[in-house]
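Archive entry. Fields below.
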Amino acid sequence: MKFHALKKLRVIVSLLFFLLTAFLFLDFTNALSCKAVNTILFLQFVPSALLFVNLLSYTAIGFLIVIILTLLFGRIYCSTICPLGTLQDIIIYLSKKLKINKRFTYQRTYNWLKYSVLIVTVTTFLFGNIVLINLLDPFSNFGRIFSNLIRPVYLFANNVSVSVLELFDCYYLYPVNLKTFVLFTFIFAFFFLIMIIWMAIRGGRIYCNTICPVGTLLGIISKISLFRISIDESTCDGCRACSLTCKAGCIHVDEKKIDYSRCVVCFDCFSSCKSNAVKFKFIFRRKKKPLSEKEPNNKRREFLITTGIFSLGLTGLAFGKNRIEDFRKTNIPDNKKYPVCPPGSLSIEHFTKTCTACHLCVSACPTQVLKPSFLEYGLMGMMQPYMNYFKSFCNYDCVVCSGICPSGAILPISLEEKKLTQLGKVNFIKENCIVETEGTDCGACSEHCPTKAVYMVPYKDNLVIPEINQDICIGCGACEFACPTKPFKAIYVDGNPIHLKAKKPEKEILNGKIDYEEDFPF
Amino acid sequence: MKRRDFFKKGLSAGIIAGTAITFGKYKNLFAANTLPPEDTFDLVAVKGGEPVEMFDKAIESLGGMKSFVKSGQKVLVKPNIGWDAVPERAADTNPSLVTSIIEHCFNAGAKDVYVFDNTCDQWNKCYKNSGIEKAVKDAGGKIVPGNSESYYQEVEIKEGKKLKKAKVHELVLDSDVFINVPILKSHSSTKLTIAMKNLMGVVWDRMYWHRNDLHQCIADYTTFRKPDLNIVDAYNVMKTNGPRGVSVDDVVQLKSLVVSKDIVAVDAAATKIFRLEPDDIPYNTIADEMNIGNKDLSKLNINRIIM
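PREDICTED_STRUCTURE:
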């Protein structure tokens, strides 16, 4: 009976991970410190592995712990830590409650599919293309669902509450207007969610066991895990209750066997078994042959050849398309050559090769300047966030995104460093400027500039007009955001493909602190 | 007086009063009783003290806050909270001054005191790092967001030449008393920002002003609703790199404060304190020409207090 408690424990732990992670993607108040965010996301497999590659630090060994856990107990990651896994469990729970689908059965495996997906994903990544990880990583997909679909609803509910409270003269809450909506990412996240719901209702953890590269990888490790769920042949009465409740469809009751590569260790079978035949067993007590050994060898060979060819093709695509120079060349009045990537991301190359487009930074950015891209980084960089200076600009005293990025696409950066990191350079189109076209004062760009890289100089008719100093520009986009001209701005930031160091703003030394005469000048 | 005349006069007075009340200007009816005596100052300038002490002196010489705030009234205090900067940078109004003003309002019997600004930098960071959010809460006032268009209502600016319409924060429309508390700063586009310029923080679409003759729009908007009192913080003054400033090196200590009901006069006096002439700033000249106020300080009754 003691095994029954395991399911409860699993449910509690998984909901804890789920709710905390979901909160991170919804919260617009930066309620949690960067450290708390990092702690919550420490065990997320793909981001952690990417961060480790970038930092080589013990702070990013979450994925190693997951591997060790898997070596010990199998894919408990998939049932507790992975938020997308728990999301599917919630859908499955609801579909049972609503009587849409009450039972599962043993399913055949799609080994050729899941192993090809894994191999292609890993190979393309090794060749410098992260697009498949972006599309398939469960954590990032979860993030996109919450950031792009649920967050707008959350903000709407917040804004309604604001209006209601305002009627009672209470200004405790404040409204937030969504600036980061991108149709493409919305549609992508929407269809992904629909797909997940459909798969979960139809056959439980289909996504995890046929597509998810993390699931497949951990599934391979699970085959040699020390503790395994097994069916005690002597006590099993063959009632099939375990198999009917198994959302991974991996229990073969007739053969009394479990496909460990697919078992997500949810412990549902423990609770379902009335004769206590399903148990956790230490592997060295009795040896078992893995299920897959029975499969004929030529299938494997075939599969290796096809995936090999396929992945080679994709890497070719990567080499052809991942170069950033080949877009935003024509028909653009502001002549931007590169998009701007966030401070701490080092270069467009580093960023686009490391970002899994989970959109945590999009959710957390206080000014909402980070927006999911469409084609700004090219086809392979779709959905990876960029700095959108049309709707907002980067706050001078803020490094939130660099503190929370789980994958290391945006590496930690201090405020002092950030203030001297040049993301891009300011460019001025005099012909578009109000001072030139209207002959009136404006200067909104210079007002907003935190370093005075944009400053005003005397112009005809006692006016002042902007002048720029690219050396001290950090590319925050405040000038571009503030510029009131339509439809094309008179001042804009062109991204630096590799972030540079800006010079420190020059200080004007004023004569002494106290500058007043005894009497009034009037 | 004949009985009939008495009724006639009483009736007409009643009609006038009633009409005035219906048109929402009922305050003017009772204003006669509370108008300060004739020798009251048009403008008070103080220097040499701390912000709170200087304000105490200034408001005292204008008959106390009671001359402006009546019991049970709703007051709006509008400081400059435009930038995400610490108080030492003098990019935003001195928080201790804001606290003091709110306390004076409550002592005069104000029911509620509200504070907001439509900021340039991220609004909640401005509120927090300027120290003004805490200053307002400490004094028992209400700090209100100004970050969403939903708070702003479109109004017509009848006397405006370039600015005919603007979306104005609902608190400006709802409050009985409007106290403008700018900080004197250098400004890259208008040379200086003081009281009139500070009112850009109560409207939603500032970019329209920038596109359509900024100086004229600043003067135009002032015709919509003149603040009942203008209190210019010139204690720490950003002499250069304004309005945002780069560092504390931009700041000098002038230890001054200017208070007046006349928004043009207060801007003219602050301009002089900055060592510029009122006509150096085009919106001063335009506002004076539009009879919004008086930029000629020699024609005003000024109380000069040196502490």
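CURATOR_NOTE: Chain A touches chain B through 51 residues (CB under 8 Å).
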